[in-house]
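User: Predict the structure for this protein chain, please.
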Amino acid sequence: MKVLMVLTSHSDLGNTGEKTGFWIEEFAAPYYVLSDAGVAVTIASPKGGQPPIDPKSASPDAQTPATIRFDQDQDLKSKLAATHVLSELNEGDYDAVFYPGGHGPLWDLANDADSIALIEAFYKNNKPVALVCHAPGALIKVKAPNGDPLVKGKEVTGFSNTEEEAVQLTKIVPFLLEDEMKKLGGHYSKGPDWGVYVKKDGLLITGQNPASSEEAAQLLLETLKEK
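Assistant: Here is the predicted structure, written as structure tokens:
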């Protein structure tokens, strides 16, 4: 089995002067779930090369077994430093796609034509699409084969308004994921802040926050095995 993992290339946290990027836990935990199960994982980003890491995701309070393993994994760090350019990849070469979050995707992947086309191709060709935390923001311009927003009428989750308030970025982010999902007709729901909460609706898998990333990857793996 082959899975494509798509990371953000966006590093600026709005106009704050602070940095963002992808969240280590949301990349590392799913990567290990998949690779430990024998899945070949290809990593890509809009600009290719080393994607920006959200510095807060390296802080002591954000550490998990997966991030600790990542810190010592020079092979994976080398792979990460040389991500493929997203526009050069083809859906036909993979069985599924997984999008880790961090705030970065709200700026670039939400509007990236290559990413949008890629998700549409995976979905149209009956392949699972999984996204966690802020990464479901990459769905806001994605259309279903019938032309409706992909999330319309589907059970979805993602980083909640209350979690965004807790990290004090409500006024900084380009849009609130929870609000946007509802506007598009998605059946958005959430669990407790920072708790594990994942929704699956057919081929679409979404996780609410960093804690949900491992579970989302497990669900993706199960979905692939069922196919």
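The chain has seven helices and nine strands.
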